[in-house]
């Protein structure tokens, strides 16, 4: 029987941490990990979309995970996203993640080519087999991956006893209920879209994994707390405030993760570098948006936390 309770909670998606030359910075990775420990989140989701994984090498991702685990082991639940766009590299990252003692590995489906479901299942099962003692989390994000997790594909993957859950980033919250029903009481489903955390929790999600959580974890934790207390009116107020902050951060010329890193520099004294090309870095005009977002976060925390 899987130990699923440890996954019930809030997992910020870990940000890519670069030095001033744009290379992965072990020191900055460790500082961000310490930051999340201090914020009281359940765990972290490392080397996913927010970690700019598709623009990083296998070695970059190993360096990041090694330094997260050096600080987080025993203090945070760590889910390592190990998918690359080929099975060989993904298996290498899965084996490496297991050697470090992560709690789970996660994978998107292969992108670009439209593969049949049996090929996707073989890809995921091969990666899981490279980390045979580690829980496996399916990452469903059809709007970016181009492939949806169907009930048939999920049924096939549930034949693998290491499949512990789904990170669901599809927009219909009904998918959360369907995946929970198919997987059973010990199956974990994480809400993916940050803008609908409250909806996902109400529909049965065990927690959330989100790319904007790290810039405002206090607000995200409060949404989960209030939802569990059935104070949905207050939880919705905070969700609406969070969504306004997200829309503001997405309105810059530069990439949203560049905005987030600059906010963390201002509010938490964390220096995480810029974003990796082809993501667009911030321009001077974006600083007004950064400052507005900082004020929105500060005001919301003062009001609700």
Describe the structure.
- With 305 residues, the protein is an alpha/beta fold.
- It has a domain at 7-217: Aldolase class I (TIM Barrel, Alpha-Beta Barrel).
- It contains 12 helices and 8 strands.
- It has helices at 26-39, 58-72, 87-100, 117-130, 142-145, 151-157, 174-183, 197-202, 217-228, 232-249, 256-268, 287-304; strands at 10-12, 43-46, 77-81, 104-107, 135-140, 163-168, 188-191, 207-210.
- It has an 8-stranded parallel sheet.
- β7, α8 and β8 (207-210) form a beta-alpha-beta unit.
- α11 (256-268) packs across α12.
- The chain is globular and about 50 Å long.
- The mean pLDDT is 96.
Summarize the structure.
The chain has 305 residues and is of the alpha/beta class. The chain has helices at 26-39, 58-72, 87-100, 117-130, 142-145, 151-157, 174-183, 197-202, 217-228, 232-249, 256-268, 287-304; strands spanning 10-12, 43-46, 77-81, 104-107, 135-140, 163-168, 188-191, 207-210. It has a domain at 7-217: TIM Barrel, CATH 3.20.20.70.
